Amino acid sequence: PDATARDGASDRNGQLTKPPGALGRLEDLAIWYAGWRGEARPRITAPQVLVFAGNHGVTARGVSAFPAEVTVQMVANFKAGGAAINQLSDFAGAKMAVHALDLDRPTADFTQGPAMSEAEVCAAFATGWTAVDAEADLLVTGEMGIGNTTSAAAIAAALLGGTGWAGRGTGVDDAGLARKEAVVAEGLAANPDRSGLGVLAALGGREVAAMAGAIAGARAHRIPVILDGFICTAAALCLFAEDKTALDHCVAGHLSAEGAHQRMLNALGLDPLLSLGLRLGEGSGAALAIQVLKGAVACHSGMATFAEAGVAAG
Amino acid sequence: PDATARDGASDRNGQLTKPPGALGRLEDLAIWYAGWRGEARPRITAPQVLVFAGNHGVTARGVSAFPAEVTVQMVANFKAGGAAINQLSDFAGAKMAVHALDLDRPTADFTQGPAMSEAEVCAAFATGWTAVDAEADLLVTGEMGIGNTTSAAAIAAALLGGTGWAGRGTGVDDAGLARKEAVVAEGLAANPDRSGLGVLAALGGREVAAMAGAIAGARAHRIPVILDGFICTAAALCLFAEDKTALDHCVAGHLSAEGAHQRMLNALGLDPLLSLGLRLGEGSGAALAIQVLKGAVACHSGMATFAEAGVAAG
């Protein structure tokens, strides 16, 4: 981030017609955004929403309430404009693009070895990296992939330790939840590499790797990122495991209802902007959170100062 | 609310291309909004933001970090477009109007008797009621009034009992906080009426009564209301004390950083949409929460059903 722009934004914030700190987190958000964009009085006019889709070999283990065909069906729904993320992207004034990654070639079942080869994970990561529009001023990454809450749970378990990372996903019953937990344990046993990118390849999926690539690519363009829920945060966690500053350009858009999301956010030191019980993925919670960040920046850049307005500063 | 529209919205919600319940609270919000508007597939196109301003005799007791002149200065700032609520109203596509209520004639110091006479409170209530645009499809009420966190704390103490309702407001120090607590206790001792409207007159202010009038008036037009923070919720509490169903057309927009707001929301059974540490008033938190409700309705009314999209329903 640009220290001059950040300091300029902080100075401006102190002069705006409100009691100090009265806009709470909106003030911090605006200053953070200003720093990354290198402008003390920025605007958000070009958000981008990237949705990546992938299929998971681990679905053969009965870890989802939906059949794997739903991934490709939902990609068609994204392209036709019928999904939640289409509505929320439009509402946020964001350009949305969908990238389906080799849907007819699912990743390998990670209980038998790595989900992806090094070449496969690199290709998916590069797809995400290059999908970022250098002219965007904000990025949301979302996903679709039947089975990917199991993948995300396995990533968290491998990088953060402990158990209980599996959750209900799209709505599995108790038996399904037990299968997910068992599959996660088997995946960890079958894949000993505990580096961030090693775990991404072994336990992730193509859409997870693409999100990690997009998050990293956005940073190269100084584009702030709003993270979505459980799967997106797991992708971000792989970057964090490699470099503790890798997510400094990110905020957590929302707290997912997927049970272990809070634990994952705690590990990353991230405090979500929204907590509305969403557990859809697609980037939906983060796309809604664009509105919070836009509101923060609108106040910061649009408000009058005490001097401009002739208001006593208390 | 219209049970047919609500049931139609609930039925539609069950057919949308997402796992059941995956949009969490957004689903409940859309169905609630549909019921109040009498349309199973509504849109939000005409939000209204009403900001009421009033002056408080109790400021003579040193309860605010800002001088009372700031009320009229901030009204000028609202009219010039320089305040936070201007930016957030514009961002929400809302029509904003400011009503300054007899600023040169503060209410009486409520530690000496009622803040307002019956005629005064009725006039302020009517100002709020008639300010509501019958063509609006959503209402936010906000306020400005140096000293009004003390008034709101006194209302809460009178109607809900207990102590500790006073908070930091715009930023008083420990001595100021102690003065606020003492003033609240004196106000309760001086004004024995514990009916909702009696408390509104005795311990409220003109802007507080106007907000109560606007909230009640919106209901007559079946216009849903997003409540703002501590002061607005205190106004709503006076209605609730008269009729436990009086706020069924309202949601809580946000949790204020003003300490006792959570207790007040708990008493009303309201769960805030946002929790971002705002404590500005003006309607700012509720205006930002318009975006959440708009997002909920955009998903509900814009998404494809499983049948339309050819997606397997799991």
TrEMBL record, chains A, B:
CDD domains: DMB-PRT_CobT. NCBIfam families: cobT_DBIPRT, PRK00105.1. The keyword Nucleotide-binding does not apply. Belongs to the CobT family. The lineage of its organism: Bacteria, Pseudomonadati, Pseudomonadota, Alphaproteobacteria, Rhodobacterales. This is Nicotinate-nucleotide--dimethylbenzimidazole phosphoribosyltransferase. Catalyzes the synthesis of alpha-ribazole-5'-phosphate from nicotinate mononucleotide (NAMN) and 5,6-dimethylbenzimidazole (DMB). HAMAP family: CobT (MF_00230). One of its GO terms (molecular function) is nicotinate-nucleotide-dimethylbenzimidazole phosphoribosyltransferase activity. It comes from the Bacteria.
